[in-house]
UniProtKB/TrEMBL annotation:
CDD domains in alphabetical order: PBP2_TAXI_TRAP (cd13520)
Alphabetical list of SUPFAM superfamilies matching this protein: Periplasmic binding protein-like II
Keyword annotations: Signal
Protein name: TRAP transporter solute receptor, TAXI family
């Protein structure tokens, strides 16, 4: 249980704007947000969000720390963090105690969707990679070993016959890297490609496209039709179209397996805080500008694949979404 104290002043203004909410609101002394390692989209976004939420509740000490999709749901559900970023497949497995989770973590609640995470390979220019089969024999990273997203990436790589053993047998290597090491090794030309899962445009990919230069490895329709039914947990992935001309030198406009990045909060986060957090996420102009024109932080997609899912929405977040006609 998180320690709380009764907040006055700024909270009173918030409550005044939410007449249907109880006036007996409490606000945590501390509010921890867990994202991912520095360099990743979650981390960059989380830093901005922490600042904005802290300004909305100046008496609440908001902190932001690195995490990872495989641990964020557990940290939020256990109350060790009040908010976290996750991916829908990971959180579904955590809720059900499946996959890499040895128990059910059911004290997390959904706030809404963040962005569609397109699952694809990013190749360094000059590495000789134009299609997924070309990854064989190259130096490839699926992500850090402990990331659940690395397990998802490996499902896709394995579908194309790319494994640690096959890479080694063909003169390549599997490297389990975080985003910082990916950036450095791509720039040094010691890494040929990595699996990625993000929105468009991605700050990381914009940086890498400047040096050393990258291309987005496309899928064919036949490949996506083959891959989607094999990804677990079932029903957590959809087919979408990768945006056209996402980065200089990459055409885009191809089918791609997609999962949703989502926002979670602990069930004990007060309604007033969850309401204001949701409002910031879907209304703040700076955050929307940072995420670009992709269907990220869009109210029309806020409940996509989540509304009738196993994980409940937080009541404060649901109230905001209902008021906006998005629930």
């Amino acid at each position: 249980m998180i320690k709380t104290f009764v907040k006055r002043g700024a909270l009173a203004l918030t409550i005044a704007a939410m007449p249907a909410m109880t006036l007996a609101q409490e606000v945590p002394k501390f509010f921890k947000i867990v994202s991912t390692s520095p360099g990743g989209l979650w981390h960059t976004f989380g830093t901005q969000l922490a600042d904005k939420l802290g300004k909305a509740f100046p008496e609440m000490a908001v902190s932001h720390v690195p995490g990872g999709s495989n641990v964020n749901h557990k940290l939020v559900s256990s109350g060790d963090a009040q908010m976290g970023f996750s991916f829908s497949p990971t959180s579904i497995e955590a809720w059900n105690g499946e996959g890499g989770f040895d128990q059910k973590w059911q004290d997390a609640r959904v706030v809404g969707t963040f962005y569609p995470a397109y699952l694809h390979a990013v190749a360094r220019n000059g590495a000789g990679i134009e299609k997924m089969e070309d990854l064989q024999g190259k130096v490839v990273s699926p992500g850090k070993r402990e990331w659940s997203t690395a397990a998802i990436a490996m499902q896709i790589l394995n579908d194309f016959g790319v494994t640690e053993e096959s890479l080694s047998e063909n003169g390549g290597q599997m490297q389990y890297l975080g985003f910082g090491d990916v950036t450095n090794m791509m720039a040094d030309r010691r890494l040929d490609a990595f699996m990625y899962y993000s929105s468009v445009p991605s700050p990381l990919l914009l940086k890498l496209n400047e040096q050393p230069g990258i291309s987005i490895v496309p899928y064919t329709q036949e490949e996506v039709d083959r891959i989607l039914p094999t990804l677990t947990p079932a029903g957590a992935y959809v087919e979408m179209t990768y945006p056209a001309d996402p980065y200089k030198g990459s055409a885009g406009n191809f089918p791609v397996p997609t999962m949703w990045s989502i926002f979670l909060v602990n069930k004990d986060v007060p309604d007033a805080v969850a309401y204001e957090l949701t409002k910031i996420l879907y209304e703040d102009a700076d955050l929307k500008k940072f995420m670009g024109a992709d269907p990220s932080l869009a109210l029309e997609y806020a409940t996509t694949s989540l509304k009738d899912g196993v994980i409940p929405f937080h009541s404060g977040a649901q109230k905001y979404l209902e008021e906006k006609g998005a629930f």
